[in-house]
Design a protein that fits this description.
By secondary structure, this protein is α/β, with parallel strands linked by helices. The chain has three domains: 150 residues, no CATH class; 62 residues; 118 residues, CBS-domain (Roll). 55% of the residues lie in helices and 16% in strands. It has a four-stranded mixed β-sheet with strand order 1-2-3-4. A four-stranded mixed β-sheet has the order 5-12-11-10. Strands 6-7-8-9 form a four-stranded mixed β-sheet. Helix 1 crosses helix 2 and helix 1 crosses helix 4. It is elongated, with a radius of gyration of 25 Å. It starts with a strand and ends with a helix.
């Protein structure tokens, strides 16, 4: 996950501004500044201030869009883990498997919120007058929010319209997985169309084509990654961590030598990951990747604690936690999951274990 600044907590959800959100604010402020100087006769100090405020408000508008998802999700019984704002918009991490109807309601509220903001800013701009700086800024905010709302209604991932369409397609007994594949392809195609439109605009000397093209490239890439993740969560629907884990009956003491570990637990060409304990508490994991990080000549003299990857709360998962929830949350430092049942380590989950479940 990229660097971000934690702003506050909203009803239990952590609100984070990605570092790129500053770029969004600066870009929008620059656009507003140019528009004001082209259309309004004001002093330099005034237009800079108005443009800077407009840039900050644009970031808050994105936060309002995402917050609307979170509010509706919570009201319908879903848990919102976090809300994040970045240069291309934002996203909310929502736990749980919503019904198709709930998914539609949660997804559609983002565009509705943005369109409502567009209407409010347009009214404000009309009242102030488009011949003054604040009126021009309000008009720009109205157009930007209208664009955010309209684009997010496009029925493809990672846009809100994609989740609306998936909810509609998966109602009744229809396959959620099949609906996910369809929506992912629509999102990728729409992104490529925007890339083509951006290139056309650039070739015709319209600099806005650069923004359109970059946005299309982002949408196309995000459609593939988000679509793949969503396909996985749809595939694992109903399965819990215990269904995918590799059972582990013992934790390796950190004082054990690497050579002893290989003699006792290595089977086949690779050492499967194992939990490492210190003073009765699991503090890390060790596997083939950690072993290969040191020279074989050091194996007889190196303790496991020296090569293990330390773990934190994000690396642990309850045995009954749904796999799709596990896939949605940020990966821990070890890139593996230690499965715990009533405080006791009972298994490990690696990428190969998820693949084994998929192959069943």
């Amino acid at each position: 996950m990229s660097v971000g600044m934690r702003l506050f907590r909203f009803r239990g959800a952590e609100v984070v501004a990605d570092a790129s959100a500053l770029v969004l604010a600066l870009l929008f402020a620059g656009i507003v500044l140019v528009d004001i100087r082209m259309n309004v006769a004001v002093g330099a100090e005034t237009d800079w201030i108005v443009a800077a405020v407009a840039g900050a408000l644009m970031v808050l508008c994105v936060l309002f869009h995402e917050g609307s998802h979170a509010v509706v999700a919570r009201s319908l019984g879903l848990k919102v883990r976090s809300i994040r704002v970045y240069i291309f918009g934002g996203y909310s991490v929502i736990e749980g498997r919503p019904s198709p109807g709930v998914e539609v309601l949660v997804a559609v509220m983002g565009p509705v919120a943005s369109l409502a903001l567009a209407g409010g800013f347009w009214f404000l701009g009309g009242q102030i007058g488009l011949d003054v700086a604040m009126g021009r800024a309000a008009g720009a905010l109205a157009l930007a929010n209208a664009a955010v709302g309209a684009v997010n209604l496009v029925p493809g991932f990672p846009l809100d319209g994609g989740r609306v369409l998936r909810g509609l397609l998966s109602m009744g007994e229809r396959s959620r997985l099949r609906a996910t594949v369809v929506v992912s392809r629509i999102g990728g195609t729409f992104g490529l169309v925007l890339v083509g439109a951006g290139l056309y605009l650039l070739f015709n000397a319209y600099l806005i084509g650069l923004v359109v093209g970059l946005g299309g490239w982002f949408l196309s890439s995000a459609a593939r990654s988000v679509g793949r993740r969503e396909e996985l969560t749809a595939t694992f629907d109903g399965l819990v961590a215990a269904d995918a884990m590799r059972p582990v009956s013992v934790a390796i003491p950190g004082s054990m030598l690497v050579s002893q570990l290989l003699d006792w637990y290595s089977m086949g060409p690779r050492l499967r990951s194992l939990p490492v304990e210190e003073n009765g508490r699991v503090v890390g994991v060790v596997g083939q990747d950690e072993i290969e990080a040191i020279a074989p000549s050091r194996w007889p003299s190196t303790q496991v604690r020296r090569v293990m990857t330390a773990i934190g709360p994000a690396d642990c998962v309850g045995a009954e936690e749904p796999i799709d929830t596990l896939l949605m949350r940020p990966a821990g430092r070890s890139r593996r999951a230690v499965v715990v049942d009533e405080g006791v380590v009972v298994g490990m989950i690696e990428g190969a274990d998820l693949g084994r479940v998929l192959a069943r």
